[in-house]
From TrEMBL:
InterPro entries: AB_hydrolase_fold, SidJ
Upper taxonomic lineage: Eukaryota, Cryptophyceae, Cryptomonadales, Hemiselmidaceae, Hemiselmis
Name of the protein this chain belongs to: AB hydrolase-1 domain-containing protein
Record-linked SUPFAM superfamilies: alpha/beta-Hydrolases
Source species, domain of life: Eukaryota
Gene3D superfamilies with a match to the protein in the record: alpha/beta hydrolase
């Protein structure tokens, strides 16, 4: 088992993206295959918000063909969590305005998030049908198929007792 430290780990999530994470997972898988043999297959596990990385890699990863299974441990909806926080609606408007104005990589105001976060990442995590919006309870069956249907390998969804950010 290998646990990578992606650019999005810890406080880096706000200036990263699912695409960047998928590229980093590709680098790891390619390296591991070069060491263990080109026929080696891998299982990708995501935890909490990291579940979106596992799904996104299935959809966009160049090395996705080497993945024979996916584990989603405690997938959560960042959007539903953000909706419980004061100021989210206002910050969504700020982020949308920045992105619409062509400044998607601009940093949001400090009050938007604990970590420095770009406008595009804020929308991805907290906007309805943003790239990260994969596990929200209000997604339709069709929206869920569009978001999760790319996982063409066996997938285990493991629920956890409590997520440190989404305990209920």
């Amino acid at each position: 088992m290998v646990q990578p430290l992606l650019s999005s780990s810890h406080m880096g999530y706000g200036t990263s993206s699912l695409s960047k994470d998928a590229r980093e997972i590709d680098i790891l898988i390619a390296h591991m295959a070069s060491k263990r043999g080109q026929d080696t297959r891998f299982v990708v596990c995501g935890h909490s918000t990291g579940c979106q990385d596992a799904v996104w890699h299935c959809k966009k990863g160049k090395e996705a063909g080497r993945v024979c299974g996916v584990i989603l441990q405690a997938p959560v909806s960042d959007r539903e969590y953000a909706a419980t926080q004061p100021g989210t609606a206002e910050m969504l408007n700020v982020a949308k305005s920045l992105v619409d104005g062509g400044d998607k990589e601009a940093l949001m105001p400090r009050s938007a998030d604990l970590a420095p976060i770009t406008a595009s990442r804020y929308l991805s995590l907290n906007g309805r049908l943003g790239d990260d919006d994969m596990f929200s309870s209000d997604l339709t069956d069709e929206e869920l198929r569009d978001r999760l249907g790319c996982v063409g390998v066996p997938c285990l969804i493991a629920m956890s007792m409590e997520d440190e950010y989404v305990p209920e």
